[in-house]
């Protein structure tokens, strides 16, 4: 049976996640897509970063520059006329526009919406036993809830798909969060440093951006199977100690695993400015750090990984349901060998 979704409106198409989704849409072997790539004003076209060599001849990309913060529902509905599915890769303040996009999509007859989930949310237990959710996760949770609780969902006029994942491990722009992405020639003191909170031998879930994007596109190709579902995709389940061994094996460089205690985590969650200078995010006072993530968010996520909580339970991973072989996912061994390995690697693309 022919796939139901042919025209996709991708919001945030030139961001880190949006670019990966766009490339996966273009590379889809099962069907072709007509893609409306929405980007903010005064930002580069995603076409500049997309390889069309494997695209089906019917595949097309139409870039639309729209200021989401000032666009009206009627204007957005005009843009979405003829669209089958909305995929949001928005983040930050732009998430506030998702509900307007959904309302406009309903007016335009859009059948499905993918809110910008793409993560894993946790409640942190404080010293007094009460729970706390980081503002970044709370913002994302609220945005997701607004979409899935829309009256159109309950009335069956529109459906949704939420996709979660592990920690995105191939973010080249993050030398602290993802030190293994950095070339050996750039290393301070000629060694890698992996920062760990808690137990470095504890397993956590990680996801490669391309695996995530290809999984999302696979769910588009099976619209009934993915209808009104919360789905998760993981590329590798591995400990930081195992990652360190792979780095040493494939790069020949020493790897220093720098460990922080859960007491350190609590202290820094209570007072982020007390964090070591190199771990602070770039945007804060002085800009000393090397990460774009707030330091309290970093300590929260890494602490959850070190505590063994950053994992999807059995039954809440869906790679195989959509045709992915877990043994052929983009795992750390493949990634480090392919990116840095002295003997080269074998592509899984």
From TrEMBL:
It comes from Lithohypha guttulata. Residues 271-287 have a biased composition (Basic and acidic residues). PANTHER family: ISOFLAVONE REDUCTASE FAMILY PROTEIN (AFU_ORTHOLOGUE AFUA_1G12510) (PTHR47706:SF11), NMRA-LIKE FAMILY PROTEIN (PTHR47706). Keywords: NADP, Oxidoreductase. InterPro entries: NAD(P)-bd_dom_sf, NmrA-like, NmrA/Isoflavone_reductase-like. Residues 271-290 are annotated as: Disordered. Residues 6-284 form the NmrA-like domain. This is NmrA-like domain-containing protein.
